[in-house]
Design a protein that fits this description.
heterodimer; A: 240 residues; mainly alpha; Methane Monooxygenase Hydroxylase, Chain G, domain 1; elongated; B: 255 residues; alpha/beta; Rossmann fold; six-stranded mixed β-sheet; four-stranded antiparallel β-sheet; 10 strands; 26% strand
Chain lengths: 240, 255
């Protein structure tokens, strides 16, 4: 199929809105990265930076929504063009949520820097966050390159993130059982781990949307759910 | 008769205008009581194929039609079929409203008269009123049935032509770009009418407006260079067409 519309203005509209998605994606990747670094280095200023930058992510989402509404109203996109617009809307919504989780991470970082440090926890969280950040970058690359195989790869990798989360969940539980003074920092750290795990889920939403964009159908939901902590109540020992 | 029953089947239909191969091996099943849209660039053969369905191409000397077209299982190109009777069953509405230079009443009464559908004036009056109501124009013309049809506005003239087409109780209604000469309001009225007509008829509409095809039809056929490239559910064609040529055409790319 020819890539270019007869109406070059339509091409410009579609390119502009996709460029905004990339810009938004860049800001969100940066937010995840900075939130992780601030956690590890107890850098409250960097954490503040992440919190303040969230407003520009939200603003971009709003711009993308308006731009998409305009394209629908003026161009009546069909087939792949329609799928581009629908995909753009969903990616923007998911990026916005990921941005919120990064901001929440940064908020907890500020609290954590005042508390007892938990050995090794921040390194595990950094590995997990870095994987999610890479998945996000690949999902957005798959979007730009219209590569459903790459997008499917991202879907599979979310299982690793879920497993990292499961491991951290058990680790925090152990720390809390060892010493009640660990409870406050571990609760904060657990929320951060859960935030990162949720970011991974939102990245898979983006990857699924890319598969829809390229193939016209969503991938079937055959992926095993790897976050099993909701079924782990029996881990908590009975009090004597 | 259920909504999914097939009204018209076309098998291996070829049309030649002299040496030009205008329709290449078209196979399609048209459903009863639904709207089928034919879309495609100018010269793709969609109108030519439409005109095969009521043998309007018979009137063009150099036009040769081969293959098999059946209406309710009967070959419409059979020697025993009278094209005039066929066209009473398969009515047609054209791009440009073409009312006869007669009164509004006579425009509608003409077909029923020559086909002997009314025994007396009372019955004819009833047919005229019913047809004008189906054409969604009765209220606008009921007090001036004696005035010439050509004095109506474009949109009204087109609805009069639709009323005229349904007056002979056709089973299939062919529409060749029925709204291209109309403003958006008249177009919306005709589209609303098409949606109502599908309760009783199988409607086939040729249109250059993709949005119109999307709005009014349940099935869409895309023609390109004389081939029927893709035929399927309208919703599917406009969100996820299978053929690249369809995709290029409906998204406004050079195909």
């Amino acid at each position: 199929m020819n890539d270019e519309h007869i109406s070059s203005a339509f091409d410009r509209d579609l390119e502009a809105i996709q460029a905004e998605i990339l810009k938004m994606g860049g800001l969100v990747e940066e937010a995840i990265m900075k939130a992780t670094v601030s956690l590890e280095t107890h850098d409250s200023e960097l954490a503040d930076e992440v919190c303040n930058a969230d407003a520009s992510i939200d603003l971009l989402e709003e711009q993308i929504n308006q731009e998409a509404a305009r394209v629908i109203a003026l161009r009546q996109p069909a087939a792949v063009d329609l799928r581009v617009i629908l995909t753009v809307l969903k990616i923007a919504a998911n990026l916005e949520r990921i941005g919120d989780y990064a901001k929440n991470m940064a908020k907890r970082t500020r609290v954590l820097s005042q508390l007892t440090q938990i050995n090794g926890a921040t390194a595990s969280l950094r590995r997990m966050a870095r994987e999610v950040e890479r998945m996000l970058r690949d999902a957005l690359n798959a979007f730009i390159m219209r590569d459903s195989i790459m997008a499917n790869g991202v879907l599979v990798r979310d299982q690793d993130v879920d497993q990292m989360y499961n491991a951290l969940f058990r680790e925090f539980l152990t720390f809390m059982m060892e010493d009640p003074r660990n409870i406050t920092p571990c609760i904060q750290l657990h929320f951060i781990a859960k935030n990162i795990e949720r970011m991974g889920d939102l990245v898979t939403n983006i990857a699924e949307q890319v598969v829809y964009l390229v193939t016209g159908t969503l991938p079937d939901d055959a992926r095993p759910k790897m976050d099993l902590t909701s079924m782990e109540l029996e881990v908590i020992p009975q009090s004597k | 008769m259920n909504a999914n029953s097939i009204k018209i089947t076309s098998r291996n239909v070829q049309v030649y205008y002299g040496d030009t191969h205008a329709i290449k091996d078209v196979n399609v099943d048209i459903q009863d009581k639904s709207v089928t849209a034919f879309i495609g660039p100018s010269g793709c053969g969609k109108s030519t194929f439409l005109r095969c369905l009521n043998r309007m191409n018979d009137t063009i000397d150099i036009c040769q039609v081969s293959g098999d077209i059946q209406l309710d299982g009967e070959d419409i190109y059979d020697k025993r079929v009278d094209p005039v009777q066929l066209r009473a069953k398969v009515g047609m509405v054209f791009q440009k409203p073409n009312p006869f230079p007669k009164s509004i009443y006579d425009n509608v009464a003409y077909g029923p008269r020559i086909h002997g559908l009314a025994k007396n004036k009372g019955e004819l009056d009833d047919i005229v009123e019913k047809s004008l109501r189906r054409g969604a124009i009765w209220d606008e013309v009921k007090d001036r049935l004696d005035e010439p049809g050509t004095g109506l506005s474009g949109g009204q003239q087109q609805r009069l032509c639709i009323a005229r087409a349904v007056a002979t109780e056709p089973e299939v209604l062919l529409m060749d770009e029925p709204c291209s000469a109309l403003d958006p309001i008249a177009t919306a009225q005709i589209e609303e009418l098409i949606d109502e007509l599908r309760e009783n008829y199988s409607v086939i509409i040729v249109t250059h407006s993709m949005q119109q095809a999307a709005r009014v039809s349940q099935k869409t056929a895309f023609f390109h260079l004389g081939n029927l490239v893709e035929f399927g559910e309208t919703g599917e064609i406009f969100t996820n067409p299978r053929d690249e040529r369809t995709e290029s055409y409906i998204t406004g790319r050079i195909g």
